[in-house]
Design goal:
mainly alpha
Length: 89
């Protein structure tokens, strides 16, 4: 199996994990989380992204920011909120 295919499968699994965790929170009485819970969810997602790269160093911030974006997008999607995309300059 190619590395690209493995990474794609792991990213899908990460997305399912984040969606399941956020969904469980939403069903449990709202989608509000404490900062500590949000940080923990992002930390787990960043770990899985790093694992997809075989933990090669130098991409820790990218992993964190990508995980944060993915977790927040899942939370917004469950709330029916779709923000306008922001172009990075």
């Amino acid at each position: 199996m190619s590395d690209l295919k493995v990474v794609g499968q792991k990213e899908k699994a990460l997305s399912k994990h984040a969606k399941a965790e956020v969904g469980a929170k939403a069903r449990g009485g709202g989608n509000r989380r404490s900062p500590e819970e949000l940080q923990q969810t992002i930390m787990v997602a960043a770990y899985y992204l790093s694992e997809c790269r075989n933990f090669s160093p130098g991409h820790e911030l990218d992993d964190w920011l990508n995980a944060e974006a993915q977790v927040l997008a899942e939370m917004e999607d469950l709330n029916g909120f779709r923000p306008e995309p922001v172009a990075r300059t």
